[in-house]
Amino acid sequence: MRNVPTVLVLALLAGCGSSGGKPPVIQYAGGEPVLRVNDQPVSTALLDEVARGRGLDLANAEQRQRAIKELSDYVLLANLARKQGMEADPKFSATVEAQRLQGVANATMEYYARTHPITEDMLKAEYDAQLAKAGSESYDFSQLLFDNEADALKAGEEVLGGKDWTALYAEWQSKAKQAREFKDVRLVQLPAPELVAALKPLKVGDSTKVPVKSQYGWHLLHVSAIKPVTPPAFDAVRAELHKRMIARQGEQWMQKMRGEAVVVDLKAPKPAEPAAAQ
């Protein structure tokens, strides 16, 4: 059986894990009933949530029946779990509680996004910022990457001496850690800020005269072409931009809460003791 949609995690599983004065198996019954499973009424909201989670259209008869079958299966199994006292089993209860907490967390993040909408002005400002960051040009360049500074300096001295890059590249490509040509690369795609700073001032035909140090090693770069780039239209990237901004906003909110929380691992493994000296 597939994963249960968020609302059903809250409504069905939470009831199974309770003890004592047990709440009803379906704890969310808002709105008018749309189904009856044996004697259990099931609300329209729950059917809507199943359909939304599965991408089903309730106006389509075949898809509606699929949603009804899935929801009624959940209700039947939840009632069976209640009747057979499965909540007494620790593993069962832990599984239910973990899924309930995950459902609460997902619904909370969704609620936060819904109540803190990304406005059109925010989207356009982000679009402009991304365009400025990406730049309006792409680069064709070749790179010699060295894992030791001595070789990088030797090759750099040959560049300073005026040696042709093609000849230099051919001489050092078998000795370098990496020798590679790149096409249509925008500065925002480069993996290290040092490379961005090194490429920006270069013109077509220019090479770096001094090796550029990054976390990957020492680089010598040569630019063979700089081409204008036509950015995608705002409407073409709007949906993806909105998705990313929602995710970033949620993560920033979570980071704030994590920073204010105190989480203690009561069963953390103890670090291994150093071996005794021989």
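(the above was protein one; protein two follows)
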Amino acid sequence: MAGHFWMFMPSWPFPATHYSELIMRITVCIAAMLSMACYAGIAEGNPVDRNAGVNQDIQALRSLEAGDESMVKGASAAARLRDASDCKLMDFLHAMKGAKPVGKNWLLGIANKRYLKEKGAVQSELGSFLADTSNDPEARYTVFSWLTEADTDLRMKLLPGFLDDPSPELRYAAVQQVLESTPEADRLKTLLSSARHPSQIVEIINRLDKAGVVIDQREHFGFLSEWKLIGPFDHVGGHNFEKAFPVEGDWQKGSRAPVYEGKAGEVKWIDHTTSHKEGLVDLASLYNKEKGCIVYGVTEFESPIAGPAEIRMGCINGNRVWVNGELVMSNEVYHSSMQIDQYIEPIVLVKGTNRILIKICQNEQKEGWAQDYQFQIRISDSTGLAITAK
């Protein structure tokens, strides 16, 4: 269920000045507009009128999950589609919208090969595709790269129009262009509102700090800082990642006992508030560097809105996360790495109290680099902008 880095948001208008220049530089053609409805059928999973086998192969790629069997299916479908005469480059770009990550990679690979064959005939269609912010973000960035790969001036002129774009890749490139121009503090403060990638946000905050402008990094990211923690519970041998200890069942029912049977006797809840700038909760220090163990944490997030959102976690240990009783994240990974927004999953918030339960599992590795036992969590919209609790 793991996901990586930054996505979507409501549509933003593409600046008319940049759009006009793009179309002017690529050749004006309104035929693209007439074909959009045909291509949209693929993006929504409704086959257009063509060979049924082609439609089946496209849909098969869109729904591919990770796994050896899917690799075989993907390779077979992709081989048939690469040279299929009754579908075009734009079909594959539109099909990327809503596709599973594995399938999207296959579709993007086919699109790249098709572009080399068709680019002379689809420039205006590509311009229209890029301008439509409802299209797949990664596909739009790919199109932008194609259109500007041999035109640095065009790239530099277009990028400012993507500072508030729903495509994280386009937004990142736009913010990076400004950062490379070494802007003054006032421009950096404005740029901070556009930045979504953690590395760029941290860089902007550090630059502002050197300029005498202090930004609360923990507050800007919206890390959840107040927790009730309980543990350690047994995880010797790594066998209890999916075991539901009583605290899980109680929390799902909206209650929690004051005391539970832990790894070596009774354990009680403790209150913990982190002031770390990256929202880190250091379980190793709180639980005396215990190994082969599990710690649970609970908190309540008072949301000002109801609707789609994302929960974003950084954790170097095995982890599971429930929001309002639903398991939304599960990563049985230990000591590979840790970074802000390492794992991203969609959630649905209710307005008011949202109940969050986390399970953080530590293994028994003895190497020095395997001693970290910590996590960070935040709630954001689909672009990575923090949703601040009431």
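Reviewer note on protein two: The longest strand covers residues 293-303.
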